[in-house]
Enoyl-CoA hydratase
Amino acid sequence: MSTTDHTGFTAVHDGPVLRVTITNPKRKNAIGYDTMVGLGETFATVDPSVRVIVLTGEGSDFCTGADLSATAAEAQRGITPEMTMDAANRLVQAIVDAPVPVVARVRGAAAGIGVALALAADLTYASEDSYLLLAFINIGLMPDGGAAALVAAAAGRAVAAEMALVGERLSAGEAKGFGLIAGVLSGEELDAKVEGVVAKLGGGPRRALELTKRALNGAALGALDRALEVEKAGQVELLQSADFLEGATAMLQKRKPVFG
């Protein structure tokens, strides 16, 4: 077993299993630019001995999206909105394109790009108290990371529109009912279920797993590439808008935004 610490996450290689854990619990596992880049590289360069990847978050939440508290510092380093969007898109694409199944273990909140990370996985299992939230509209932004395509592919346009345009929270039970995730379980049952699936996949035929995953994604996610392009263009514009400045400021100040 080998453990590698990265900015904002760890990767533990344990035989046929690679366990990737987002490690920013004080910020509910929000992720910044460096973490997005590192995660993308990890999923894009999977060791041939790996047959399954587990993605989860440390503590009580899966991932609450981009870390807005890091935005100013990233800008001072020369990180542009285009660079941030490219990193987010590469990460989601790397999860989808990983040559082995990715299992997402979701507790608590999966919000913003956290929704995209959870749904880009091949098998997503969530605790009963978890939820999906696309609250971009509340701070003057739009969904990114392919979230529009990932939600619509499984649940349809109406559910995607309610999540994206109204910013409605979707409980794990509702997400399961809409076909967005594979299972909803209690805390103890969640870990047992994930480990059971991981054990089965870890002993599976790697090439057959790869080709099966490729076929499933080809059938279900044909619109993902286009969605990533549209989201990047729109989000880059919105990230530089007065509405986003107001929305982000209001969120940090814990008040209701007043958009122009």
